[in-house]
Amino acid sequence: MKLKSIYVCSECGAVSPKWSGKCADCGSWNTINEEVTAVPKKGGGISATGNASVSRLLELSSLNSDTDEGKEIRVKTGTGELDRVLGGGLVKGSLVLISGEPGIGKSTLLLQICGALSRIGKVLYVSGEESTAQIKMRAKRLGVTAADTFLLASSTDMDAVIAVTGNTKPDVLIIDSIQTMTSENVPSAPASVTQVRECTHALLKLAKSSGVSIFIVGHVNKDGGIAGPKVLEHIVDTVLYFEGERQSDYRILRAEKNRFGSTNEIGVFEMGNKGLSEVPNPSAIMLSGRPAGVSGITVFPAMEGGRAVLTEIQVLAAKNPYGGTPRRTSDGFDGNRLSLLIAVLEKRAGYAFSVCDVYLNIVGGLRITEPASDLAVAAALFSALCDRAIPDGMALFGEIGLGGEIRAVSRAAERVAEAKRMGFTRIIVPNACMNGLQDKTGIEIRGVNNLQEVFTGL
Ligand SMILES: Nc1ncnc2c1ncn2[C@@H]1O[C@H](COP(=O)(O)OP(=O)(O)OP(=O)(O)O)[C@@H](O)[C@H]1O
Ligand SMILES: [Mg+2]
Ligand SMILES: [Zn+2]
C-alpha cells in the first residue's frame, strides 16, 4: 500500500494537496492538518459509461407502493425531554450525534438514558474515554439502575466494536466519543479528520444495515487535529447540541439537524449531584431568581417548538462617560435586531440611546430568534433607559415594524395561555391578535397598535 500526505481542514473536512494557514473552503484559520492516507489503486474509481461486468442491480421500489419502508419505527427512550427533541422518540436505525463542550454532561445524559433503555431493549455502551470500572462507578454515583441487558465495553477499536455489535445485536449502541475511535482499515492517525469521518461512515452503514440506533458523542474542540463535529454533521441523521452556562445548573438539548423531525424543539434538564433531571416546566426555571422591581427586565412568552416558554429578557443601559461609539452587546439575541429596535425606539418614540452602552441578555441560556420578541425587548430597553421597572406580573409579545407599528405574530393564544398558567396578571399583545384570542378570562389583555400606546400604559 502506497501512502501519501493530504491536508484536511478540521472545521469543515475539506481536503487540499498542500498546507495553508487558511482553509479555502470555510475560511477558518489554522485548521489545516497533515494526514497520511493510502493512495487509491490505479484503474479504480467510478466509470461514467457503465460497466458491462456489473451483475448487481438496484432493487427498485415505486414511490406509491404501500410498504413499510419509509415508515419510521420509534422507541420512547423514557426521557421525555430527549424524545421531544428527537421528534417523538428514537428512530430505529438512526445515527444521532450529541455534541457539546467538555464537562457539560454528555456522558451523564447517555448513561442515564441507557439505564432506562436497558429495561426495554439491549444497550451496548462503548467508551473510549473511561474504563468499565469508571463507568460503573459513575453509574453508581448517579443511581442509574439498569437491566442485565446493559452491556459495557471500554475500547477505541472501531473494527472490534462493529464486530461485537454484530454478535450481541443491541438495540442501542453508544460511542463515547467518536474522536477516540480508530479503525485499522483507515491509514490515518487516531483522531484525525479522516479517521473520525471514516468511523462515522462505518457506523452509519452499521445503523442502516442492522437497524441498531446509534448515539455518538462528538467533542466541540477548536484545537487542530481533532475533527470538529461540523465534519460529521453531513453524515449523521440527527445532530443534537447539549449546552448550558458554566455557572448555571440548567442544560438545554437542541436539535441542529434532524432527518426525522423539526429542529425547533428544546429539551431542558437540570444538573444535580444525582445527575440530570428533566425540567418539564421550563417557564418556572427560566423565571426563577427574577428580581422584582428592577428596571430593564421583561418577560416574553417564546415558542420553543411545540410549547410556550416564558423567557426573561434583561437590558442594562449605562451612560457612556467617554462619548464615542456606544456599545451594543447581546447574548442569546441577534445583535443586528437589537440595533434595529434601538433605532426604531429613537426615531419613532423619541428615546435617545446614543449616549448609552446597551447590554442585552436572554436569561437561562435560551436563544431568541422570533420577531415576536421585539415588543418585550423594546419594553426592556425603554425600562432600562428610563430606569422604570415594568410592573410585576406583566408579559409582552409582538413584532415591531420600522414605522413603530406593532404587528401580529403567530400562536398568540398559546403565548397568552402560558402567561396565565404561570400566574401572570397582565399581558400586552398586538391589537391585530385580539380577535384570534378566544379565551380572554383570567388575565388582563391589552391590544396595542404602536409603540406610543405601549409606553403610555407602562
Ligand atoms: N465524580 C463526580 N462527582 C461529582 N460530579 C461529577 C463527577 N463526575 C462528573 N461530575 C459532574 O458532571 C458533569 C458532567 O460530566 P460528564 O462527564 O457527563 O460531561 P461530558 O460532557 O461527558 O464531558 P467530557 O467532554 O469531558 O466527556 C461534570 O461537569 C461535573 O460537574
Ligand atoms: Mg464524557
Ligand atoms: Zn475548512
List the SSEs and their pairings.
Blueprint: E1 3-9, E2 15-16, E3 32-38, E4 74-75, H1 80-86, E5 90-91, E6 95-100, H2 106-117, E7 123-127, H3 132-142, E8 150-154, H4 158-168, E9 172-176, H5 193-210, E10 213-219, H6 229-233, E11 238-243, E12 250-258, E13 266-272, E14 275-278, H7 282-287, E15 297-304, E16 307-319, E17 328-331, H8 335-349, E18 356-362, H9 374-386, E19 394-396, E20 399-400, E21 406-407, H10 412-421, E22 426-430, E23 444-448, H11 451-456
Parallel strand pairs: 6-10, 6-11, 7-8, 7-9, 9-10, 17-18, 19-22, 22-23
Antiparallel strand pairs: 1-2, 1-3, 4-5, 11-12, 12-13, 13-14, 15-16, 16-18, 20-21
Helix pairs in contact: 8-9
Bound molecules: adenosine-5'-triphosphate (ATP), magnesium ion and zinc ion.
Zinc ion is lined by residues 9, 11-12, 14, 23, 25-26, 28, 31.
Name a few traits of the molecule:
single chain; 458 residues; Rossmann fold; Ribosomal Protein S5, domain 2; four-stranded mixed β-sheet; 11 helices; binds adenosine-5'-triphosphate; binds magnesium ion
Question: Can you describe this structure?
Answer:
With 458 residues, the chain is of the alpha/beta class. The protein has 3 domains: 3-38; 74-280, 3-Layer(aba) Sandwich (Rossmann fold); 285-456, Ribosomal Protein S5, domain 2 (2-Layer Sandwich), CATH 3.30.230.10. It is 25% helix and 27% strand. It has a 9-stranded mixed beta sheet with strand order 8-7-9-10-6-11-12-13-14, with helices on both faces. The N and C termini lie far apart (76 Å).
